């Protein structure tokens, strides 16, 4: 069976200051079927190369958005990327089927604890509710939404939890199959 080709769109405005995303990226970047695009490095002026990005999407089977949770969403460049790249006629609309059947996975780190993402918690909404715009964007683009990988409690994380999360992220991508991950 062919290994799925994975496109990892990494959005962190200060990767050198990152504790969590830097480690997560290091855990998977060397996998032979993973292509990493560091969006802030590629587009410091936010001038996204739409054609290049669309071509990259066409060449991969699983699209990952990896980023810290910023204001219950992504850092700004990933929004700009969506606004520019997911064009009508390409990603959605009557003839926009370029992404149909591709898998989509959110890989997110959150400062707050899991228990805060709850109707009676400090953040009031579950993470599933917070991520609804991403899920529906994937849906409108006919992509197959995957259960997101969330690392909670980033403000106070211990080394063992981070190591374990990195390891399981690597194993997830190493063993990824398009057939069984529905
Ligand atoms: C501008 C900004 C907004 C943030 N918003 C949230 C948020 O909405 N929810 C949350 O749990 N953490 C939030 N955080 C905390 C980050 O998610 C956390 O510091 C990050 O995931 C740690 O990853 P890193 O070490 O790769 O930077 C925010 C941090 C910043 C700087």
In short:
34% of the residues lie in helices and 16% in strands. With 182 residues, the chain is α/β, with parallel strands linked by helices. α1 runs parallel beside α7 (159-174).
Could you describe the 3D structure shown?
By secondary structure, the chain is an alpha/beta fold. It has one domain: Rossmann fold, CATH 3.40.50.360. It has helices spanning 20-28, 39-42, 50-58, 76-85, 127-130, 132-140, 159-174, and strands spanning 6-10, 34-38, 62-68, 103-109, 144-145, 149-151. Strands 1, 2, 3, 4, 5 and 6 form a 6-stranded parallel β-sheet that branches. β1 (6-10), α1 and β2 form a beta-alpha-beta unit. The longest helix has 16 residues, at 159-174. The two termini are 17 Å apart. The model has no long low-confidence stretch (mean pLDDT 96). It binds flavin mononucleotide. Flavin mononucleotide (FMN) is lined by residues 12, 18-21, 68-72, 109-112, 154.
Key features of this structure:
six-stranded parallel β-sheet, Rossmann fold, single chain, 7 helices, 16% strand, 182 residues, alpha/beta, binds flavin mononucleotide
The top-level CATH class is Alpha Beta
- Could you tell me the mean pLDDT? 96
Number of domains: 1
Tell me roughly what share of residues is in helical segments: 25-40%
Residues in β-strands, percent: 15-25%
Low-pLDDT residue spans = none
Number of helical stretches of at least 4 residues = 7
Q: Which sheet architecture does the biggest sheet show?
A: 6 strands, parallel
Q: Please name the fourth-level CATH homologous superfamily.
A: Flavodoxin domain
């Amino acid at each position: 069976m062919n290994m799925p080709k994975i496109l990892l769109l990494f959005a962190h405005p200060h990767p050198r200051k990152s504790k969590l995303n830097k480690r997560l990226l290091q855990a998977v970047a060397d996998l032979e079927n993973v292509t990493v695009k560091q969006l802030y490095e590629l587009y410091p002026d936010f001038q996204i190369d739409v054609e290049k990005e669309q071509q990259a999407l066409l060449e991969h089977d699983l699209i990952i958005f990896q980023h810290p949770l910023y204001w219950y969403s992504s850092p700004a460049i990933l929004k700009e990327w969506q606004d520019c790249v997911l064009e009508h006629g390409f990603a959605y609309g009557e003839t926009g089927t370029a992404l149909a059947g591709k898998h989509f996975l959110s890989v997110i780190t959150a400062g707050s604890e899991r228990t805060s993402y709850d109707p009676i918690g400090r953040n009031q909404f579950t993470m599933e509710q917070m991520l609804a715009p991403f899920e529906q964007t994937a849906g409108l683009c006919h992509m197959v939404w995957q259960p997101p990988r969330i690392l909670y409690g980033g403000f106070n994380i211990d080394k063992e939890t981070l190591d374990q999360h990195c390891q399981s992220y690597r194993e997830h991508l190493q063993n990824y199959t398009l057939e069984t991950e529905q």
